[in-house]
Here is the input.
Amino acid sequence: MPVADEEVPVLIVGGGPVGLTARALLERWGVRALLVEKRTELSPFPRSRLVNVRSMEVFRQLGLAGTVAANAFAPAYGRIRFRDTLRGEDFATEAMVGVAAPVPESPVTGVLTSQDRLEPTLLAAARAPVRFGTELVELTEEADGEGVVAVLVDRATDVRTRVRARYVLAADGANSTVRQHLAIGTAGPGRLGDFTTVVFDADLGHWGALQPAGVYFTPLGSFGPVHPEGGWFWFGPTPEGAGDADWAALVTRALGPDDGVRPEVLRVQHWAMNAFVADRFRNGRILLAGDAAHAIPPIGGLGMNTGVADVHNLCWKLAGVLRGWAGPELLATYATEREPVAHRTLRQAVANAELLLGVLARRRDQLRSDDAAAGRFELPWAERYFAQLGLVLGVTYRSAAVLTDGAAPEASGAGSASAAGDGGTDGGTDYVPRAEPGHRMPHLWLAPGRSTLDALGAWFTLFTPDPARWVPAADGAPWPLRIEALPAQWAGRAGLGPGGALLVRPDGHIGARWPAYPPGDAPLHAALTALTSRTAVTAGPAVRPPESP
Here is the structure.
C-alpha cells in the first residue's frame, strides 16, 4: 500500500458551491474532510445565480439561509424580461416561481444572488481545511479496496503531497479531472456552444431598480445585474475573432439607443455550455457530484441547485458509513436515487433552452415583419417556465434506503429507482406535497416560525402524534435519532392514525411510514437497519448528533 503524507476520511475535489456545501454538511454530520481547489481563489464571476427553494432549505438547515438572503437581490428581481434591447420595453415577462414571492410549500423563498457572493458564505460555514491552488494529478484506489490515494500538487510551490482518503467526493466541474482519470463517459447532447460573459460597470442602477429582473433576454445577448449595489453582466454566443473583440462596443450595441452610457468592461470569461450526464456516479470509493456528474444548461437555474441536492443526498450516507451506523452498501443508493434526477433535470433544462431560443426567434421574425407593435407577445410555456416546483420539491426516491408502506424491510424494492416529480409528464411544473415514502417531508408549521423541516438535521427524525409510545422502540438505537411530536391535525393530513409515524432521513426524504403503530418486535430498529444497510444491530447508547445551529 502506498505511503501517504496524510490521511483524511473524505477528500473533496472542487471548491465551487457544491464542494463547499458538501464540506459544510460533512462537518455538521461529524466527518473530517479536506477540500482542494485548483483555482487560486473563489470565483470572481457571477456564474450560477439562482438559489431555489430546495437549496435554501438545505442552507436553512445549515444556519446559512439568512446570510444568503441578506446578500441577495430583493424578491422583485425574481423575474425574467424579454426585450429587443436592454433599455427597450418588455415584449414578454415572467416571474420565477418560489423566488419572486413565497410559496406555501416551503418555509423559505429562493433568491437571486451571485456565485461570488454565495461562495464566501459557504466557505465560512465550516472549519475544515481548504487548499486553493492545489490540483489533483493522480488518483489510485488501493488494491484492498479500503481507501483511495490522491497525489496533489501545490501549483505555487510545485510540492507534491500524497493524501489517503476513505472516500473521494468529486465536485470539480463539467471538465472534471476525477471523471477523466476514471475514464467515465457521458451521455446527452454534449457541447451546445461557446459563450462569453462580460462583467461591466455602467450607470444603469436607477433604470434597473424601476424595472427589476434577474435576467433580461434580448436577441443581442442576455443581461443581468451582478450585485444589489451595482455591476452588470452580458452573456451570449462567443463571436468570431473573440480575441480581438471590442466588448465595450458589443455591450453598448445590445444596451440600445445611445444615451451617453458607456460600459466599463471589468472581466471577460469564455465558457462552454455543456449538456450531459455521467455514465455512472460512482467508481468504488470515488463519487461524482454536481457538474462532474451532470452538466446542466443554465436556462432555468437548475444546475448548481441539482448539485446541492446531490451532496445533501450523499453526505449523510457517507457520515453513516464512516461513523459506523450504516453499512457501506448504503452508498449504492446515491447513484440509484440521483442519476434519474440528473437525467430528468437535463431534459427540462434543454427544453427550457429550446423554449427561450424559440421566443427570441419568433420575436426576430415579428420585427422583420413590422409586427412589433401588434401587442403583448404571448409566451409559449403558459406560465410554466421557471414554475418547476415539481422538479425541485417533488423528487421521489425509490431505493433500498426507502421502505414502501407496509413492506417488510427486506421487501422494500432495493432494485428500483424513480425520480419523477409530481408533475408527471408536464415537465415538473406542478407540486403536490405527499407524506409518503421517498418524497420530501412536506413543510408544515409545528409552531410559529418552526417548520417540520426545521426538526430535521444530522439525524433521523420520527414524526408521530404519540411520541411516548415510540420512545421505547428507540431505546438503544445506534443511529442518530430524534422523536418529534406531530400535531393531530397534521397527522391526519399525513395519513397517520393515533399511533402512526413518519421516519424521515437526514436529507429530508421520508424513509418509512406507519399509518398505525406496527405489530412485531422492534419495528423502528428493523426499519432503520434496512434503510441504512446495516447487517446487524447491537444495542447501545444512541449516537448523539451535533446540535442544530
